[in-house]
Amino acid sequence: MSRPVIVVVGAGPGVSGSVARRFADEGYDVALLGADQQVLDDLVPDLEARGATVGHTVADVTDEQAARDAVRRFGEHTGHIDVLHFNPSAYREKDPLTLSVPELLEDVALGVGALLTVAQAARPHMSAGGRISVTGSMAADEPWEGAASLGVQKAGVRNLVHSLDKALRGDGIRAVSVTVRGTLSREGAFTPDRVADALWDAVTTDESQWRTEVPYPG
């Protein structure tokens, strides 16, 4: 049997890179979709050294056609997508009195809308047991007014995860958002590797215990 496959959307050096490494260590092949070729080039040899076969594509995930095509190519090449992990969000340091509507919509297109795009593209290649995971944030519940669009994105993407789970669970596919209740750091509970561990635990939760939102720390 072929190895399971994770597609990491928004692949970068932080949590998404740690997620790719954690799943590679667990025997997954990895497909990376990101915005920066150099970042992807840096990730690939590390993942290959862990035994993974790695595919990678640079695309703007707010370009709906480009994102759909990239995920479709991954699915067609591997024959299946077992986990789709979504990481992107936009950080724009503007409060709600200076944030414009076009700026808000631009950020939401990345942090929420792109999940819709890649989930729809991945669905034909997913079957029972498939999982969708999202890096969530406490900004959904406790937004900082200095970056007002981030809280909107994180609340919106969590809501979309709930809807995706309801739409897919009849086919045995589940979705989960892991709400990171702290600031990423180089040490302690909020290192990217620790968050990746939490995402692994959430994705591999038995369906009888499934929750569509998991706080971290629990």
TrEMBL record:
SUPFAM superfamilies: NAD(P)-binding Rossmann-fold domains. The keyword Oxidoreductase applies. The keyword Ligase does not apply. Keywords: Oxidoreductase. InterPro entries: NAD(P)-bd_dom_sf, SDR_fam. Belongs to the short-chain dehydrogenases/reductases (SDR) family. This is SDR family oxidoreductase. It comes from Nocardioides potassii.
